[in-house]
Structure formats: structure tokens, C-alpha cells
Here is the input.
Amino acid sequence: MFRQHFNLHSTAVDGALLVAIGVTLMGWLSPQVWNLQGSLPITPQSLIMVLWGVLWGWQVGTAAVLTYLLVGGIGLPVFAGGASGWIHFTGSTAGFLFAFPIGALVAGWLAEQVKDMRYAASALLLVLGQLVIVLLGLMWQRGIVPVEISFLDSLIDLLPPLLTKAALGTLVVLLVGRGLTGHKPS
Here is the structure.
């Protein structure tokens, strides 16, 4: 976590700025849908939600995610595929939306507990935070929509995109960390 390295003004102003930047990035990146392999499209939503908590801590990460959800709920097209509106909080994918702040909180809180953020630790935190989102989202989805594929098979199908996003997020942590701390590889 790099919150202590971001000092432009006061703690409150810096936190508000990081939340605003996070919501902006979430609103820009989350509507994108990637078709990397096979027929299962993936979005960067779970990555950016968890990444913001890992980079800046649970308070900034969770505040940014809750603001993002509010912005999407009131009608800005920030959800996957450019969707928006409160209706998305009632359907089969609502569990994923509700899990976003939980994933950001868990990953952000754990990132704050790490004394010296190593990139392997950030990769594990990104995987863990996204797993929280996927598990909660799948449980909600299965409670609403009958699914023939087993829970474990659904999880296995989502694992490669999750790991790909975690690897991408780890590169972002590396770049942000080096940019803020001046750490150079030996």
C-alpha cells in the first residue's frame, strides 16, 4: 500500500483526490468487455475495484467503490458494457456489484497489514480480493438463476481471467510503487 507516499495536501484532501481518481478510472475501465479466450467475456471491474484498495488502503478503496456504485446506480454508464441504473442491483449479477466494496475492503485492509509491500504479496492480495467478489457473486447468481454447471466448474472457468487480471494488476502496483517510492530494480 502506497498511501503514505501520496502527500499533496492534507490527509483528507489527498484521500478525496484518490477517491475521485479511483471513481474516474473505474468509470472509464469498468464498462470495457474483453474477449481474450473462449466465449467467456471478462471485464476489468473486479480488478480495478480490488486494485484501488491494494494501492491506497481499505478506506480509500472502499469509498471509491461505493461512489462508483452510486454513480452507476443513478445512471452514468459505468457498469460492464456501459450499463447503468438501479435495476442492476436486483438481477443475477447484483451479487458481484454488492461484493465489489467487500473485495476492496478485504484486499485494502490486508494490504495495510503488510509491512513491506512486495509484488508477490500484491499479486496474492489481488487474487484474494477478486476471489471474494467471484465467490459472493456466484452465490448470489445461483440463488436467482438455476445453473446446470457445478459451483466448482464455474469457479474454474473464472480462474484464468481472474489470474490474468491479477497479473495485470501486479504490473500496475509495480509501476505505481516505483513511481512513488523511487525504488529501482537492482
About this structure: The mean pLDDT is 88.
